């Protein structure tokens, strides 16, 4: 009966509102589906299976893709001349069904081959387009294929000296088995440098390691797909999307979409103090949408709660609807959209129904200080007091003295602690990429699925969409591109993130929430910290000297310590200045965390908040381990990338781990047993009484924190792996077991230079007496 009446309503020429009214009356009169309830925040976008969709038909006249096929001449596609005068542009050759692009020694530099071809565009708007699909093949061991935008000789990509284009774009690994592959590259990649005005050029770049010799790539076609066409798969659906915005940093929102005219209706029981918070989004200034929210009550009365014509493609229109007068009633709540052009896409960002707090589950703030080394924080005994706020905060909870990251840098480490799975289990690196697999639920997915409102604020793209970590995040703010291309200061990333967090809380004040921060205040940047912290530990004159040294060292980059000698830079003085800049960044970061906690206390939220402060790696991931660099004499075996330098070296992976929850965790605790960042997800789920992952490699620290039985110390595992063309893993797996550390190299490269090979694949260290792990016991 439901199916027949729905078909009748949609198939007859009544107005959308009339259809909805009749449908609502029928649903209420017949009992309808079981109403949704609001014990936790109710994410309406996740309940499409319980919704009634009226209209929202996919139009037949969607904008069409634009395609260039290279089985016929395409003279408008031409090679770009690289910026270095000594490099040559690739010379395309016609093949039967493709444009053949050979890379030789003339196209090489920086240890790789590069080539670019590009085409002029008719002043398109980048925001109107969603993806580029490239069909290509190669039988050679090449590396990447990717996008570049807008040819320019005046303002090319900062730091990319090989490409005379304004911005980089998405990229993918090339498959070298000779088969035709389709590479789908996003046009809203997080690294894209945004610009004002039209999209004037589309470029395709490709590369290969120079040690592979001459290689050849065939391109069969290039196809550009409009944004609207990307929504053509379903009448309604859910996706993480930027809407129509072209802003550098997004934000991305978890949204439900429909095609106007259309409606998505839910039968819900309204809670006490009920409210609906939602963002409105459109894809085009030329396709305005009239959004409406209605509530149909038991007696059939329809109340218009919101009605607004929205046209701003540059921003999400955040709206709040008061439902408190409907408390206790079961109503049909409908999200409606109408537009002049049939099929226009309407986006409802994170439509979330909340009420008076009805759960004892805490808010959760997972605060990752990217590159924070416990060795260089006064809360861990560092002799410069750069973390006084964290010292006070830590006194209210627990401090883990020997916490380790799972890997040596952001991308593998973050993927591991977000899933409680080791890097090797997640698949390792395939040419530098390791997007978290779809079947490995992330921390955000666990929390969102439990009803938590979810938000992410990051300044390092390795911890964001580049790794696929935006899944099931209501509000996702990634500021890496904003800082890199808008010339912002990474050392004050925390300030911008906290502003965005409080704006999000004003828009979505319901509870509980889960928020993940990943700041870059202390990451390896030589620019000055913000006032009043600039000059706290290093003078302006000395910092300017450091910038000059940094440039000279970069120009002579290579083996240590020889590169300092070539650059004419005193290694010890250089390292000391770098450490001082780092300490200023840490002092600013500490101040901002202190302000965040103060505001939580002022709002009465602190007692109900679980705060975890941690890091993805220590300072050594950027070769800035000053404890070694400031020695008068370097250990004989130590150099950049030395395979004998283990991941568990204190300056690489010893990180802060501070856990505070005033309601449940006793104050003033310190634990000395080694623990791992891979334990964080399981600890959070355990503490807030949520189901554990079906597959996990971390253990909960909850029993330890709560003084309950059930926790036993166990070895800490670290690993980093690359995937060879043969499918074999190569890399390292390491174990920290109390006092001892063991580092095992898997599938070492037998063709590598002798000075880069280990004398044995297994090295052992005494971490009590050698925390920097520079003296293997094997030598004894």
Topology (SSEs and partners):
Layout (H helix, E strand, L loop, with lengths): L1 H10 L4 H14 L12 E2 L8 E4 L10 E4 L8 E2 L13 E2 L4 E5 L4 E2 L2 E13 L4 E9 L6 E8 L13 E9 L7 E6 L12 E11 L5 E12 L9 E6 L10 E8 L2 E8 L5 E8 L6 E8 L5 E9 L6 E6 L7 E9 L6 E10 L8 E7 L18 H7 L3 E3 L2 E2 L5 H10 L23 H7 L3 E6 L16 E4 L1 H6 L7 H15 L5 E7 L20 H16 L6 H6 L3 H32 L6 E6 L11 H4 L20 H4 E2 L2 E3 L8 E3 L3 E2 L3 H8 L14 H5 L9 E8 L5 E9 L2 E7 L15 E5 L14
Helix pairs in contact: 3-10, 8-10
Structural class: alpha+beta
Mean pLDDT, as a whole number?
87
Number of helices: 14
Uncertain spans: 1-18, 24-30
Q: What do you see in this structure?
A:
With 780 residues, this protein is an alpha+beta fold. Strands 1, 15, 16, 18, 21, 23, 24, 25, 27, 28, 29, 30, 32 and 33 form a 14-stranded mixed sheet that branches. β19 and β20 (302-310) form a beta hairpin. α3 (388-394) packs across α10 (571-602). The longest helix has 32 residues, at 571-602. It is globular and about 85 Å long.
Distinctive features:
14 helices; disordered N terminus; 6-stranded antiparallel β-sheet; globular; 780 residues
Structure, briefly:
With 780 residues, this protein is of the alpha+beta class.
């Amino acid at each position: 009966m439901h199916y027949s009446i729905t078909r009748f309503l949609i198939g007859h020429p009544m107005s959308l509102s009339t259809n909805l009214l009749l449908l609502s009356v029928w649903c209420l009169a017949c009992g309808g589906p079981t109403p949704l309830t609001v014990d936790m925040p109710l994410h309406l976008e996740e309940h499409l299976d319980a919704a009634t969709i009226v209209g929202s038909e996919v139009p037949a006249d969607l904008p069409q893709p634009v395609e260039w096929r290279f089985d016929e001449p395409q003279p408008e596609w031409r090679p770009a001349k690289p910026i270095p005068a000594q490099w040559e542009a690739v010379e395309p050759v016609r093949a039967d069904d493709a444009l053949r692009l050979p890379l030789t020694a003339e196209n090489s530099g920086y240890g790789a081959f590069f080539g670019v071809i590009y085409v002029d565009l008719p002043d398109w708007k980048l925001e109107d387009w969603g993806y580029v699909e490239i069909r290509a093949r190669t039988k050679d061991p090449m590396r990447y294929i990717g996008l570049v935008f807008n040819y320019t000789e005046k303002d090319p990509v900062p730091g990319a000296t090989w490409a005379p284009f304004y911005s980089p774009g998405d990229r993918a690994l090339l498959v070298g088995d000779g088969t035709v592959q389709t590479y789908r590259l996003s046009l809203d990649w997080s690294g894209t440098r945004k610009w004002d005005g039209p999209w004037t050029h589309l470029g395709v770049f490709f590369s290969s390691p120079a040690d592979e010799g001459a290689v050849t790539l065939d391109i069969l076609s290039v196809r550009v797909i409009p944004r609207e066409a990307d929504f053509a798969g379903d009448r309604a659906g859910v996706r993480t999307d930027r809407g129509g915005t072209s802003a550098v940093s997004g934000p991305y929102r978890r949204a439900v979409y429909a095609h106007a005219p259309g409606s998505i209706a839910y039968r819900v029981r309204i809670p006490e103090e009920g409210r609906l918070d939602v963002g409105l989004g459109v894809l085009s200034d030329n396709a305005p949408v009239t959004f409406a929210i209605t509530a149909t009550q038991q007696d059939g009365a329809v109340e218009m709660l919101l009605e607004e014509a929205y046209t701003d493609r540059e921003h999400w229109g955040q709206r709040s609807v008061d439902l408190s007068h409907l408390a206790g009633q079961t109503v049909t709540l409908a999200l409606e959209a109408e537009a002049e052009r049939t099929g226009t896409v309407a986006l409802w960002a994170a439509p979330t129904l909340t009420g008076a707090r009805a759960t004892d589950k805490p808010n959760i703030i997972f605060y990752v200080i990217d590159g924070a080394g416990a060795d260089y924080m006064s809360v861990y005994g560092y002799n410069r007091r750069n973390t006084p706020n964290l010292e006070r905060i830590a006194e209210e909870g627990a401090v883990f003295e020997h916490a380790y990251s799972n890997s040596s840098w952001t991308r593998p480490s973050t993927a591991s602690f977000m899933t409680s799975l080791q890097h090797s289990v997640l698949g390792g690196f395939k040419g530098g990429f390791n997007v978290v697999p779809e079947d490995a639920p992330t921390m955000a997915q666990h929390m969102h699925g439990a009803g938590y409102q979810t938000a992410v604020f990051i300044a390092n793209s390795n911890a964001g969409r580049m790794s696929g970590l935006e899944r099931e995040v209501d509000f996702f703010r990634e500021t890496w591109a904003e800082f890199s291309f808008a010339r912002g200061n990474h050392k004050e990333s925390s300030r911008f993130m906290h502003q965005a967090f409080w704006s999000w809380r004003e828009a979505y004040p319901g509870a509980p929430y889960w928020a993940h921060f990943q700041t870059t205040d202390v990451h390896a940047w030589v620019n000055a910290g913000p006032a009043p912290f600039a000059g706290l530990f290093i003078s302006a004159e000395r910092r300017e000297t450091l910038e000059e040294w940094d440039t000279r060292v970069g120009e002579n980059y290579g083996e240590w310590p020889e590169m300092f000698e070539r650059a004419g830079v005193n290694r010890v003085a250089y390292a000391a200045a770098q450490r001082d800049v780092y300490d200023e960044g840490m002092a600013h970061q500490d101040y901002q965390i202190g302000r965040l906690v103060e505001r939580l206390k002022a709002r009465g939220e602190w007692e109900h908040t679980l705060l975890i402060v941690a890091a993805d790696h220590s300072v050594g991931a950027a070769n800035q381990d000053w404890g070694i660099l400031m020695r008068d004499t370097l250990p004989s075996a130590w150099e950049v990338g030395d395979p004998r330098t283990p991941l568990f070296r204190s300056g690489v992976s010893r990180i802060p781990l501070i856990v505070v929850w005033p309601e449940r965790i006793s104050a003033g605790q310190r634990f000395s047993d080694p623990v791992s960042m891979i334990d964080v997800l399981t600890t959070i789920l355990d503490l807030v009484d949520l189901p554990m992952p079906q597959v996990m490699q971390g253990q909960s620290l909850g029993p330890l924190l709560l003084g309950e039985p059930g926790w036993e110390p166990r070895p800490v595992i670290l690993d980093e792996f690359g995937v060879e063309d043969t499918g074999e893993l190569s890399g390292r797996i390491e174990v920290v077991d109390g006092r001892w550390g063991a580092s095992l190299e898997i599938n070492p490269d037998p063709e590598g230079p002798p000075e880069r090979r280990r004398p044995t694949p297994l090295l052992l260290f005494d971490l009590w007496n050698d925390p920097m792990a520079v003296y293997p016991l094997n030598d004894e």
